[in-house]
Each structure stands twice: as structure tokens, then as C-alpha cells.
Amino acid sequence: MLLRKLFPALILISVIAFLILAAADAGDKLSESLVSVPEKFDGVPILMYHKINPDPGTGGYGLRVSPRDFEKQVAYLARSGYTSVSLTDLADHHEKGKPLPPRPVVITFDDGYLDNYVYAYPILRKYGMTATVFVVAGTVGGINGFDYSEGRQPLNRMAGWRELEEMAEGGITIGAHTLTHPSLTGLEPEAARHEITEGKKRLEAALKRPVEVFCYPYGNYDQAIVQIVRESGFRAAVTADQGLGRYREDPYALKRIRVRGDYSYGRFLQELTRYHSE
Fold first, then answer.
1. Per-residue pLDDT tens for 3-12?
2. CA–CA gap between residue 115 and residue 38 (Å, rounded)
3. Residue 173: beta bridge partners?
4. CA separation for the pair 43, 255 (Å, rounded)
5. Which of 4, 38, 45, 152 is most buried, by the most CB atoms less than 10 A from its CB?
6. Rounded CA separation 130/101 (Å)
7. How far apart are CA 100 and CA 97, in angstroms?
8. Residue 130's pLDDT band (boundaries 50, 70, 90)?
9. Which segments within the chain are labelled E, that is strand?
10. Which residues pair with 143 in a beta bridge?
11. What's the pLDDT tens digit per position in 40-54?
């Protein structure tokens, strides 16, 4: 009797849910129709992520994108003919003439959070995409002490060696993000060199593979830091400066496109293509 009384309400709720999902899908399709994907790229979009996590307790939308939104973004890239490449592919293209696909995109993750393995990696594999994870070598298997200890972010678990090895074996490029994640421009030259070189050495020793790309913590760098990165054997480095990655201009100051967790689907599409007109 009770079920019979509730049945109309359940039907109404189902209809409303269907209409909401249909409206959201229509909105996504409209957003896609308003975006023009360039036929010829004058630079490569390098997307900058940090955490892919559904738990608000792991941080705000400045650094955290939900797995649901991330999958929608990756699905769009795959559906629209983008092919993910690594930063080493980019270096090989400019240094050795290795061909790039018609619509290349580089997906990057800063810091090396465990959620990159738990949530992002399966989505990337599902859509045949690769990525680069920049790892703070001294925090592997631990926590994000570099910002948690100062109250800038909640506590987060970092990927361990097993997770990093599995991702590397699965085609993910592991890059360096220093030893402890300091602001390099605030260090004495020898201290900065130690952070850069020791982080690289520790990753290479543990993973038994070359680490050839670098990411500046907090996006802070100057020409003295760039020179140390170059002398340390890295082939390319990314910044937090916004724009397309133009290797020919400076392979050690590649710009990226930041993806925030509070971006709508339409805003993501706009950010992906907006810099091609610059």
C-alpha cells in the first residue's frame, strides 16, 4: 500500500532527474558547438592539473578537479581528435625531427599525489591517453608536507614507488619537481642546484629510467634557475605561465593551461583553444 502511494512520486523524481541530465548533455553539446578547434597548431596545449579527487576534504577547486569532470575533459580530447604526447615527444620532435600527430596535447600533473594513480590513471587508460606526472622526490609514499605543514592545503597522500612504477610502465612520463618543493628563486644557488639535481637522481635511481623533464615549484623561476635546470640534464621544463607550449621559443620556459576544478565544461573548452589566436 505504501509503495503504491509512493510510486507517483518516484516516477516524478525519475522524470526530473532525466530532464536535468538531458539539459546538462544539451548544454555540453552547445558548448562544444561554440568552440572551434584549430586545424593548424602554432604551439602545443599543455594542460596543468594537480589533484583528481572527489573528496572536498583534500582541497579546494584551485588544485582539485573531480574525476567526473576530468573524464568529461579527457573524453572530449579523444573524441575531438587530440592525441596526447609526452614532453619528451615534444623534445624529440624539435631536436630529432620525430613527427607529432596533427592535434597534440600534453596532460601534466604537478606534485605526484596518490589520487593521480587512483582516479586519473584509469581514466587516461580508458581513453588511450598518456600524461606526465611531476613528482616531488622527497615526498614519495608520504604526505604533502611542503604545503600541509604551512596550512596552505589539507593533508594529502602522495603516490608511492609502486604506483609510480606502474604508471611509468603503463606509458606515463615521470618528471622531476625537486626534492622538497621549495620556491627555487628564494634559495642560494647551491641549495637550488641540490634540490634540482638530487630530486632527479632519486627518481632515476628508484625507477631505473631517465627523468628528462622538469617543473618549477610554485611556477617560480628566473634565468639562473633555468641555467641550473639545463646543466642538470633536463631537456625541457614547464612553468605556471599561461599560454601554449612553444618549444622553439624556450624549451625551459614552456607555458601551460591551468585547469581548475570550478571550471564549467564550456570554460574548459574555451581555455583549451583561447591561446591559439595569440
1. 566 666 546 5
2. 32
3. 132
4. 10
5. 45
6. 14
7. 9
8. very high
9. 46-49, 51-52, 64-65, 83-84, 104-111, 132-135, 173-176, 213-215, 236-242, 254-258
10. 157
11. 557 999 999 999 999
